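In this supplementary section we document a worked example of the pipeline. Step one takes a protein sequence of length 144 as its only input; no multiple sequence alignment statistics are reported here. Step two produces a three-dimensional model, which step three serialises into structure tokens for compact storage. The input and output of this example are shown verbatim.
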Amino acid sequence: MVDAESSRTSRDDTDVLGGKRPVPRGSFRDRVRRKPVIGVAWRVSVFMAGLISILTGCALVVLPGPLTIPPILLGLWLWSTEFEWAHRFFHPFKKKGQQAWEHSKQHPVVDGTVTVAGLAGAVVAFWAVGHFELIDRGRTLVGL
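The serialised model returned by step three reads:
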């Protein structure tokens, strides 16, 4: 009897955009979800914001420039706040991030050194690309 009731509840929470994440009663999202039109508009807005963020991250993979992963993770996080399927998908990334944070708190000197070295390497790479006009040289090599 309890299983039939819980399965009915989970089916009721599923719509075109997927299952809804549980929210605390009386919270902003709870108040938004109680109004059907505003609730759907909110979920579509969250979906579109996450999609734009993920597509931006995918575009940055192809285009030259740093920071390809953060927009993708931001989009997944946005989706995970509203959609159960995205929450399940985002959970391993969140767990790895928490493990990395714990590791960096235990080894601050090593992690700080690696971070500073990585940032210094990025600065040197950007300087070299600009100073030696590597983009223009690459275009002439390819024939553009």
